[in-house]
Amino acid sequence: MIQVEGLQGRVAVVTGAGRGIGRRIAEVLAGNGARVAALDLEAPAHAGMLGVACDVADEQAVDAAFATVEEQLGAASVLVLNAGIYPIVPFEEMTMAVWQRTIDVNLTGGFLCARRVLPGMRTAGYGRIVAMGSSAGKAGGARSVAAYAASKAGIMTLAKSIANEYAAFGVTANALAPALIDTEMIAGTRDLVSRIPVGRFGTPDEVAALVAFLCSAHAGYITGEVTDINGGFLVD
Length: 236
Ligand SMILES: NC(=O)c1ccc[n+]([C@@H]2O[C@H](COP(=O)([O-])OP(=O)(O)OC[C@H]3O[C@@H](n4cnc5c(N)ncnc54)[C@H](O)[C@@H]3O)[C@@H](O)[C@H]2O)c1
Description:
This protein is of the alpha/beta class.
């Protein structure tokens, strides 16, 4: 596991931490000494972390979850906006419900969580936010994922807006643009492995290492950046 400086004792909130990439991010932050709150639709029961049930698309649920985190661990100085859904639906069959839920979870959820922690980060003069974007948010997606791609473009830009507004307060905000990381989410895209130049899927551990670095003391001069992690799948 990657070891970085500056996470010891910090309160870190990771959304969508029940499984996949988010779970590994939570484990790596905890392994670097952070006090981690793992948020997901059902409270994760990971060893050594506070598990909190939270639908990030629900404003009241987000407020309640962060109140629980503050009560149990303290104010968050690290926030990883990782919760996401990936509906594959041909464009003409996309219902309003699927469109809206995708935007609500992948984009509005990030806004709600960030809005909840930023006042504390500003007051403390320190914060690290990392948002999980996607190569689909740059290129539109290799499958029929218009709502997903639009939501991911949105969250990557949200990170840049936060970066602009909060750099002067010691808060950095960055995004990742991953593609084809080996989790349950990509069950419908496994055939794309032949199009990955490095010849394999990425791993949650590789994504978590990058997140840990961006959340560390080493990365205070990196903000407003979108970092690809895609094995060369999309070079731009
Ligand atoms: N796997 C990839 O190749 C890939 C590529 C690009 C981006 N991403 C992004 O990385 C993030 C993690 O993806 P993953 O591959 O680990 O997927 P995953 O499906 O394995 O995990 C997503 C997690 O988010 C949780 N979640 C879903 N809706 C939620 C909600 N409303 N509130 C709280 N939690 C919710 C799920 O319960 C799940 O635990 C997502 O944002 C995804 O879009 C993944």
